[in-house]
Design brief:
This protein has helices at residues 2-5, 9-21, 25-38, 43-50, 54-67, 86-96, 112-123, 129-138, 156-171, 238-251, 271-278, 298-310, 318-344; strands at residues 177-188, 214-222, 228-233, 257-262, 283-287. By secondary structure, the protein is of the alpha/beta class. α2 packs antiparallel against α3 (25-38) and α6 crosses α7.
Length: 345
């Protein structure tokens, strides 16, 4: 440590300037260690200042005494070219998009160790688990939760043709007609549990009523105003959907035609609904492809409803919860109406 203690004032000033300009945090930390030692602090004090082990202080001081500032640089830069090339990363991206079962393994999900084995089979290049972890970060891979979906039984051409028909209907919609996307959502008194911010070492608690109570909301999203018209019921039956259709008929008295775009849920095509439509001649139903919720924008509204109201809620009664649901939908409609007004202005 004696050589470090003999640094001149100009050398210390130069070292401070280098610390301010250095962008690599490890090298900046090693320079800071030398500067503190040069000021006369002991290894234990320096270790406490820069939050490193005392052994690191001795190792950095030894490297500085042997080679000066050059000894503080990362010596791994002399290891040669990186262990992986762009082609390896390209193959890794394609591999992660698949599952281990596509490569003959029984396991359905990836681990970094299994990726190392499969990538060696694919490219002939062996990498360690830490290197694989860095490669996954480089390609932007993340550990997430898959989204369960049901495969549409229709051929792709038939499905796309139906979606184009619906979109053409909306694009060519006359001013005296309206179109709405309709769907139903379940509201449970037992709250849906979802992620939330909390302190380390603490877990928030959501008290559940125990005995679940359900209510159902049928809503329709206006394609022009993006406002939601809705009704509620205690059962998810044809009466719920019929009540929504009657509500739309009263709401859009001026419209010569009300186009309601729905999925293939049974209550949308039941015998009761068919008979009810006979008394609502202005309403026409348009059916989306089966198992294709991604083409129904009101699904996004229901996701936001769960995030803003039902997830982790602390309501003790279903009436209180449904009041919050109604308040959310009303506030949403007011905010959408305000945006529409500003856009027109």
């Amino acid at each position: 440590m004696q050589i470090i203690a003999d640094l001149t004032r100009s050398e210390k000033r130069r070292l401070r300037i280098l610390i301010k300009r250095e962008r690599q945090a490890p090298l900046r930390t090693r320079m800071l260690i030398i500067l503190h030692l040069a000021k006369g602090y002991g290894p234990a004090e320096v270790a406490r200042f820069v939050h490193v082990a005392r052994s690191t202080i001795y190792r950095v001081a030894e490297r500085f005494q042997l080679r000066g500032l050059a000894g503080l640089a990362d010596r791994r830069e002399d290891n040669g070219s990186p262990g992986v090339d762009p082609m390896f990363l390209l193959v890794l991206r394609q591999t992660v998009a698949n599952t281990p079962q596509d490569y003959g393994w029984a396991r359905p999900t990836w681990t970094q160790e299994l990726l190392c084995v499969v990538m060696e089979q694919q490219t002939g290049q062996s990498v360690s688990q830490p290197t694989m972890s860095r490669c996954l970060r480089r390609i932007g891979a993340r550990l997430g939760r898959p989204r369960p979906v049901l495969r549409c039984p229709w051929p792709k051409n038939q499905r796309n043709r139906r979606v184009r028909e619906v979109r053409r209907l909306i694009a060519d919609l006359p001013h005296n007609e309206v179109a709405l996307y309709a769907d139903e959502v379940d509201v449970h008194l037992n709250p849906k549990i979802g992620a939330d911010w909390m302190l380390v070492g603490q877990q928030k608690v959501v008290v559940t009523p125990g005995q679940n109570v359900k209510r159902y909301v049928a809503g329709a999203l206006d394609v022009r105003t993006h406002c939601v018209r809705w009704v509620t019921a205690t059962h998810k039956r044809s009466g719920l959907f019929i009540a929504l259709l009657e509500h739309l008929s009263r709401t859009y008295r001026y419209a010569q035609r009300i186009h309601v775009i729905v999925d293939n849920y049974s209550i949308h095509s039941s015998r009761q609904t068919t008979l009810a439509l006979a008394s609502l001649p202005r309403i026409k139903l348009h059916f989306l492809p089966p198992y294709a919720p991604q083409f129904n924008p009101i699904e996004r509204v229901w996701l936001d409803l769960h995030a803003a109201v039902t997830r982790n809620h602390r309501c003790s009664t279903i009436d209180e919860l449904m009041g919050n649901v109604a308040d959310y939908l009303k506030h949403r409609n007011v905010s959408r109406s305000g945006r529409k007004t500003r856009a027109v202005a």
